[in-house]
Amino acid sequence: MGNENQSFIPELSDQDGPQPGPSWANPNWLAEVADSGADLVQALDPTQMKLVVEQAAKSAGKPVDDKALEKASDDSNRAMMLVRSFRVRGHLAANLDPLCLSHRELPEDLKLAWHGFEGQEDLEVFVGGVLGFGWVTVGDLYDRLREVYCGDVGLEYMHIADVEERRFLQDRIESPGETIQFTDEGKRAILAAVIRGEEFEKFLAKKYVGTKRFGLDGGESMIPALEAVIKYGGQSGTREIIYGMAHRGRLNVLANVMAKPYRVIFHEFSGGSANPDDVGGSGDVKYHLGTSTDREFDGISVHMSLVPNPSHLEAVNPVVLGKARAQQAIRDDLKKHEQVLPVLIHGDAAFAGQGIVWECFGLSGVRGYNTGGCIHFIINNQIGFTTSPQFARSSPYPSDVAKGVQAPILHVNGDDPEAVTFACKLAIEYRHTFGRDIVIDMWCYRRFGHNEGDEPSFTQPLMYKEIRRHPKVSELYSARLRDEGVIDEGYADQLRGEFNDRLEEDFAAAKDYEPNEADWFGGRWAGLNKPADPETARRNVDTAIEKKLFDSLGRTLTTVPDDLTIHKTLGRVLKAKEEMFSSGEGFDWATAEALAFGSLVTEGYGVRLSGQDSGRGTFSQRHAIWVDQEDEHKYVPLATLPHGKFEVYDSILSEYGVLGFEYGFAMADPKTLTMWEAQFGDFANGAQIMIDQFIASGEVKWLRANGLVMLLPHGYEGQGPEHSSARLERFLQLCANDNIQVCNITSPANYFHVLRRQMLRSFRKPLVIMTPKSLLRHPLAKSEAREFTGDTHFMRIKSDMTEIADEKVKRLVLCSGKVAYDLMQKRDEEGLEDVSIVRIEQLYPFPGEPLALRLGRMPNLEEVIWCQEEPKNNGAWFFVDRLIEDALTASGHQGKRPIYAGREVAASPATGLAKRHEEQQRCLVSMALGLNDGGASLRDKSQDTSSNKA
After folding, report:
1. Domains of the chain, CATH where assigned
2. Lowest model confidence (mean pLDDT) among 537-551, 883-897, 926-940
3. Which of 418, 419, 555, 763 has the fewest CB atoms found within 10 Å of its own CB?
4. What is the 3 state secondary structure string of 135-201?
5. For the whole model, what pTM was predicted?
């Protein structure tokens, strides 16, 4: 509805966007008044409406006496409410189900009788420009409303608060010149794309009988629709599209949208690999793989990538969003979000059922995670594997979750490829205009079972009885185009024949296909590589910094701008930092971290840290953001440094979604140190799918390196089972094939060096760090200035803080993390001069070679103890046991095996009782040091399994 037709409705001035202000200020999507503006066409005050109708009646030469005006104004008001009813609820009566199995009765409030117009179809009413009408008969108005809102497209948009967004969508759906219209050439192109989609699936079924392909059969309208995304996206400024999707239709998208060569797909179906044999890796099934390519429409080239994904439905979503955000940053596109477009393709049951979908919607408008809108395309099969919609969700549509962020939703009949293509065109235009998410819910069906070996009639016999007799999309659309005179009788068959000839040619060529290169170190990754040295032989790079840079960073980290009023406690923290730089001693964890960040930024790298409360730090240790105590404006010291870019974000309260987002960001940008920090380490449990399927195995499955860093607070300090363990054992269980790095670091300087090492090496591996809690301020966990400069580097093992001659050592206690300081303090208190404490700072890749050299210098060694705070079935014990034995053998101490000292096995990672924790800790330390009050006491007090008493 154009503005020229809205003059009879009182205008409201929209509020401006978000303004600078206090932290409790509402997000901008709450600023709009939900029930205001012309597009809601609420009933006006009778006096107002009477004046409006009087003016219109005079212009049209109609009666203007009081009685006629009162009736006309009442008729007009009721007509407006009829229009509003269709705008709000018309989608409920739309023609969406191709199978006509979903019975959709016309709601009562969409009937003329509800609005008092029964039998009055010839009554002329004034609607002031709505739907292009001034004066219109009720019958014509009603027919037009049914055509617009109850056809093959059902639009849900009246839940959106923003007036301009609603008006925009109304203009596109209601204006006669903006509805579904394509040229004859465009219609033939749509038909050709549908035929390619159908014939490709048919060809695979014929050539690879019984092989799983998770075909698109029944949803082929998606192929021209996705091509529309490329075409109209390119016209709107898009130069890169990043796709994420699960199994169904993936091979079809790879072939017919991503233009992956058919011969390569056929080669993979025959058991071949898409990559050369010498690149290694375990590979993955063909319907998990991704690809990248360039396609050109109307002279505009668009680069596209489909992100590889596991079987975990929707898991790829945050990865796509993070990658898109990184690419936008690389292209300097974070303000307009025009050049890089994320597109997510979902299944209906997964969209409604998987919580990660909502987590991604939750990220969509948050600073630091916004991508300028994502296009969501739901392949609505109306079934999830064997589960019918009534058991798959509690809402009318699978798309209803999107209403939480006020995303518009276009429901569309999959048997109408023009409608589906129109929906994608409108989605591109909306996203480009408003920078927000939009959802296309394509109702279709799954012609075969969940996979091609499945029998769907076991559970849905009536649906599949209808599907077996239901015509294919191309047959329906071809008949329609023949009726319109767009194509002749043999046109569709000719297209099928030509396309099948091409498939046969590529099928023959697939037998001789040999991949000649892998693409994992191209583009932004140029110059990086797979490590050439075996994991046990790699040496550290130079990670120390110059004294001049060290001092300069000290000034940056301690200088308060004149216009900033800081908290008094922060003032004391900064005074302590000044003393560190002045004395060269006492550098704590947070200062070492800031030095690592600042030095990398100064050297031209990006640094991105996100997580729950990461700006301040969960334990008030970081203070990366200084907040003015008067007006809450913020100052980020490290963001003032030149060359690189420092970002720190307090994320939404999500682990799965945010960790996936950061993994995607690191996938796209290896030149940014990308970190995700858990509030407490065990919160990573909520992101276990991302850890298992992407972080630990993405490189070997998909040849996609990644340098993501996970910071997981870990340490037993009596805080109970949920705030003690980051589940170190789970990460160690995932370690193999040089896939990740796992560290449990005890000194600030070593933390500084491992962060810098992550960026300065010529390869990228995910890094998991068990970060401390009490060690953040522990008097012994300090470093000196000289440990950051000169020829210092990351140390995979660290020696005792007390110098003990190697030949005097009879008992060696190996450990990792915080317990080292408990051991050293107790050892020194007891005056044990033949006990040495050695810390394993990097658990994987295990430092077997340097440990063997260290052990070889202890000729009188009698016992080697592994001490840990975690229960025996947790922590590192079962991982390091044989590795330590191998190091002992290599060092000449044949026959020796490490002895365990720690908590007994436990179902819960830690006790919740402070006194019990303290006693357990005392006992395990004593056991490790060989003191008499150790072992038995620890076993007795570790857990009381004989009763329910605390």
Report:
1. 3-167 (no CATH), 184-515 (3.40.50.970), 547-787 (3.40.50.12470), 801-942 (3.40.50.11610)
2. 926-940
3. 555
4. EEEHHHHHHHHHHHHCCCEEEECCCCCCHHHHHHHHHHHHCHHHCCCCCHHHHHHHHHHHHHHHHHH
5. 0.92
